[in-house]
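Supplementary notes for students who missed Thursday's class. We covered one full example, reproduced here. Read the sequence, then the structure, then the short commentary at the end.
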Amino acid sequence: MWLSWTGDQNVFVKSLHDRYGPVVRIGPNEVSIADVDAVTSVLGASGLPKGQYYDARRDPNAPGNLISMRGEDHANRRRLWNRGMSTESLKHYEEVIANRAQQLVEQLQSSTGPVDLARWIGFFTFDFMGDMAFGGGFTMLEDGGDRAGLWEVLERFAIMVAVVCHIPWASQTLQMLPAVSRDIKTLRKVGIESATNRIKSGSTSKDLWYHLSDEAGLEKVKPPMKNVIADGALAIIAGADTTASAMASLFYLLLSHPEYYKLLREEVDTVFPPGEDPLDTSKHNELTFMNACINETLRLQPPVPTSGPRVVPRDSSGKVIADRYIPPGTQVYVPPYSLHRDPRYFSPSPERFMPERWLDPKLQPNANAFIPFSYGPANCVGKQLAKQEMLMVTSLLIQKLDIDFAIDGGFNPRLWPERLKDYFVTIRDPLMVKVTSRQ
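Structure (token representation):
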């Protein structure tokens, strides 16, 4: 609980693996396994179910959402999500991403003085996820700020849940305390209000709500409205925070390595010469260096650094994982942060930002050890959407803007990665930059 409160769980767990090896006991009934064998054994189709840890992520007064569900219930709900994240659906979301990305660039171009790029990217992701999940409803970019204080609520909620997850047997009681329940009620209210507005406006587009509520009539039984509201709220909370974290880390790493920033700009200018639209997704496959930079960012700074544990079923005979016998009832973590920095799978220099490792066959990393979106049937359903957002927004920002660290206001870029905090999702410090329009 204390390590979760400090936000240093991912760094501490990695230090244990560095000292003791790939299998480490991190609690009386918990082990962390940083080994490629655990990816399929724990997270794969024949792996382990989610553990007690996820019980604390349930709102006691709302139905379970996709992240906290297990077994057949998860599979049935996932089917609706998969339709909302299909290739056809992603094509529909392109225009929505483009509109919000243009709005982001316009706001950054009109800014005076240093700006917090991480915060502005957060405004973009929140507004877009509102558009994608409920057909609209949020105006952080237009307002130039978070007037409702939703990001602050999200961060407090993330910290609280990260701590409480380690005592799931007490989570329902703790969530009744006013200091804890306040943020839960706020987030629940956001979901209900967004859903109410979406219902009033009707089916104007094939947004995520269209698929989660089965407006196409493809299901034998209509999904309960309370389930749709819970998952719609999850889409905004989880999708906005993780994508914002990944994009902020990408720009931090690029600005910290000017040689790679220069190479990326040259690629963008080649793929999208003057007059060409950098939001044209048909050319994404030509952005080989950008894809390498994104992969390397997700390797070094996965938005969910430790992830949650799975459990060896109590009614089983146990399971052998990474050549170790794990007894029934044991909770098992497969931490991306530790796995991604393991020299057995990512060498040379696993701690360095080296996009070329994804391009040079001689440096090719172990793909099975790369799990920024988890793995298996419960992996991140929004994986392709997140990549599409990152490619479109990064292309536009690189083409339209000159960006550099703003170090004259007391901001120290060297300290920024040390202050990334692991609360299941990553909480970020301000990323202060100078922004001017490219000539």
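Commentary. Residues 225-256 form the longest helix (32 residues). Residues 213 and 223 are 6 Å apart (CA to CA). If anything here is unclear, bring it to office hours.
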